[in-house]
Design goal:
single chain; alpha/beta; Rossmann fold
């Protein structure tokens, strides 16, 4: 992986791969948006990490660094491109990819795109996929919340899975929770009509939270599933919960059909 040029000025988070600009050329709204998002992102915003961080030493056939490597970023964007007719499935927080490998083995004709913020999990996951001979998966070391709209075109995503996300127990940390109305809205723009956003958790309070946040987004039909496995391969966490008799919950949000001509109904967020 080649290290790309490091940006030195603050930038709006959606523009971090664009040519560098001076602060005077940026609007206060854009800078404010970047700072606001960075308080919720694990490790901070991509622009700030490029400007002040050190590139991680990543090794792996299917492991990519879209923050520090422009070539990796472009490779992932091509992988997610609508030019490829295969279904596109995203998992946020794949950990060591036990689910990813089983899912890709069972569905060789899909494209799997995984996001994880922990370097060790990324390395372990890549090794696990390579050992399994998986060819239809790509892994990215980045917070998905910022990168998703940069890589995926609106209305082209088939499914997004977020299994057992960090519940961020403390009140002052709740803003860091993955599931929020803002996240739900962003994902709804990426999903195809009838596309699925599926959340799993073993924390009932988080399940209630997620369901409330998703129901607040009018672009979805939301259901709490009776079968918490949702008919999918079990994650490592689910296996442990089953072993110890702990319940799990699954909340499914199905993307409503768009109003007309592929244009989503607009509303404030």
């Amino acid at each position: 992986m080649t290290q790309c040029a490091i940006l030195r000025s603050p930038m709006a988070y959606r523009d971090f791969h664009q040519p560098d600009r001076s602060p005077s050329e940026q609007s206060s709204e854009a800078v404010g948006a970047a700072r606001s998002l960075s308080t919720r992102l694990v490790g901070g915003s991509m622009a700030m990490r490029r400007a002040h961080g050190e590139p991680p030493q990543l090794k792996g056939k299917w492991l990519f660094d879209p923050i520090f490597s422009d070539s990796d970023f472009e490779s992932l964007r091509q992988w997610c491109s609508d030019d490829d007719p295969r279904p596109l499935v995203v998992e946020v927080g794949f950990q060591r990819a036990r689910f990813a490998r089983a899912f890709c083995e069972a569905n060789p004709d899909i494209r799997y795109m995984g996001f994880e913020v922990r370097t060790k999990f990324c390395q372990d996951a890549n090794e696990w996929l390579e050992r399994g001979g998986i060819e239809n998966a790509r892994l990215a070391l980045v917070d998905a919340r910022e990168c998703l709209p940069l890589l995926i075109e609106p209305g082209t995503l088939d499914c997004l899975y977020a299994f057992f996300p960090d519940p961020w127990w403390k009140k002052r940390h709740m803003k860091k929770r993955l599931v929020s109305n803002a996240f739900a809205f962003e994902v709804s723009n990426l999903l195809k009509d009838q596309g699925i956003l599926l959340i799993k958790t073993d924390v009932q309070g988080y399940a209630d939270w997620a369901e409330t946040e998703l129901r607040a987004e009018p672009n979805y039909d939301v259901n709490r599933l009776a079968d918490a496995s949702a008919g999918l391969p079990l994650t490592q966490r689910e296996r442990k919960c089953a072993l110890h008799g702990r319940p799990t919950w699954a909340i499914e949000a199905i993307r409503n059909t768009r109003v007309s001509n592929g244009v989503t109904a607009s509303h404030d967020h």
